[in-house]
Amino acid sequence: MHSLFGHLKKCGFDSAPRSAGYDENFERVTFIEGECGDLDSVQMRLDTVLTSAARLLRIYHDCSASFQGSAEGAWQLKPKPPFEVICHGDFAPYNVVMRDGKAIGIIDFAAAHPGPRLWDIAYAVYRWAPLSRHIAVESIVTIKEQINRARDFLDAYGLPADERAALPDLVIERLKGLVAFMEAEAARGSEKYRKDIEEGHHRLFREDIGYIRVHRDQIAAGLMAG
């Protein structure tokens, strides 16, 4: 990530860590002061956090679009054409730093990879809405509430309405790919992903795939509504 962080710095994007050298096999990065969490935190569910996170993702995408690194580099996740931006890959509440009710930083770029904007937006919407039964929490448990949050996220990002209909199918594709990746890594001997499989994380993603399929048309229509 050293070259990507350097590029973001040159672009004036100060909401990502800076490279601080290497320690054995790991790259050290600077610390972004603030709070992280998931949607079980009342603070992370604030509308101001939701919309500022979407705007932050848009700025990051715009900066990363001019990154000249190889699309076939050492990315953890497989690059997905067309290569429009460097997808963060896991733009979820737990990877966004919040301060004073606003998203001010992005952390953990381990899943970053080249891909189209919508690919990254789809997973972000899945996590922030959330389009899920098992990660839904108080005040955002119904599909209507989740669609409203998803639409607010897309509005703040600035995604045109005519590009939104594809998002439910992209979320499904992204989750299928995530499950396949987890299972493949576990089979290769990864302790982290073996534990995830044992704990049933892949089954939860499959349940969410079913949930999104059931509500697919409602989600697509809701995202495009004014």
UniProtKB/TrEMBL annotation:
<protein>
    <submittedName>
        <fullName>Ser/Thr protein kinase RdoA (MazF antagonist)</fullName>
    </submittedName>
</protein>
<feature type="domain" description="Aminoglycoside phosphotransferase">
    <location>
        <begin position="75"/>
        <end position="158"/>
    </location>
</feature>
<dbReference type="Pfam" id="PF01636">
    <property type="entry name" value="APH"/>
</dbReference>
<dbReference type="GO" id="GO:0016301">
    <property type="term" value="F:kinase activity"/>
</dbReference>
<dbReference type="InterPro" id="IPR002575">
    <property type="entry name" value="Aminoglycoside_PTrfase"/>
</dbReference>
<keyword id="KW-0418">Kinase</keyword>
<dbReference type="InterPro" id="IPR011009">
    <property type="entry name" value="Kinase-like_dom_sf"/>
</dbReference>
<keyword id="KW-0808">Transferase</keyword>
